[in-house]
Amino acid sequence: MGYLESAVVVYMREILYPGGFAFPLAPIPEKLAVTELFREAATLIMLAGIGFLAGKNLIERFAWFLYSFALWDIFYYVFLKFLLNWPDSFLTWDILFLIPVTWTGPVIAPVLVSLLMILHAAIILKKSRDRESYRFSLQAKTLMFTGAGIVFISFITDYSRFILEHYSLKELWSVPSRKALYDLSLQYIPSQFPWIIFGAGIVMLLVSALVSARK
């Protein structure tokens, strides 16, 4: 699936960025944009399907979903490097996701998250096999989902800041047309990744894994 994802990106970049991917973004036909959104949603459904088929109960299915998602994300960049010799470095900015809003960040950020997802999955699966009635502790669960929420905020911060420099939250609900917001998004150039926010989320995810390992 990582190769499939990277192959789609190779095709899209050949069409939209023949000189190489760079910000600001090139205009993308509406049909292509909608197709990409549904492709991302379909990918999540497939990854969830892997988790559902591989796990014997809810917590194992969640663990296999995390594991599948992480491998998919890591090998996506491995194959992009092989096919396009991109990214130039771990600090190269990328569009990470489009649902529910645009996520951006240096490549190293999603890779770190993926490594932690693999760690969480490994701990959950080991504990589940050792104890048939294993359940995620409330403390570990709270730390994990809070950390994940903070990481999510870090990924949407830079793009959201750019949009909010031009529209207030109230105005976003009454933007004259989708085209106005779309045209504005084409001017976006990443400026500053919120490493402190991201780091706080990563620490919480790591602590969550340690708590799970000890329970």
What does this structure look like?
- The chain has 215 residues and is mainly alpha-helical.
- It is 69% helix and 4% strand.
- The chain has one domain (2-214).
- It has eight helices and two strands.
- A two-stranded antiparallel ribbon has the order 1-2.
- Helix 1 packs across helix 3 (58-84), helix 3 packs antiparallel against helix 4 (108-130) and helix 4 runs parallel beside helix 8 (195-214).
- The chain is globular.
- It starts with a helix and ends with a helix.
Main features:
single chain; 8 helices; 4% strand; 215 residues; mainly alpha; 2 strands
Rounded Rg: 19 Å
Uncertain segments are none
Number of structural domains: 1
Average of pLDDT: 90
Name the beta content range. under 5%
Listing every helix as H and every strand as E from the N terminus to the C terminus, the arrangement reads: HHHEEHHHHH
What is this entry, summarized?
The protein has 215 residues and is mainly alpha-helical. It has 8 helices and 2 strands.
Task: Walk me through the topology.
Blueprint: H1 2-16, H2 30-54, H3 58-84, E1 93-97, E2 103-106, H4 108-130, H5 138-164, H6 169-172, H7 178-185, H8 195-214
Antiparallel strand pairs: 1-2
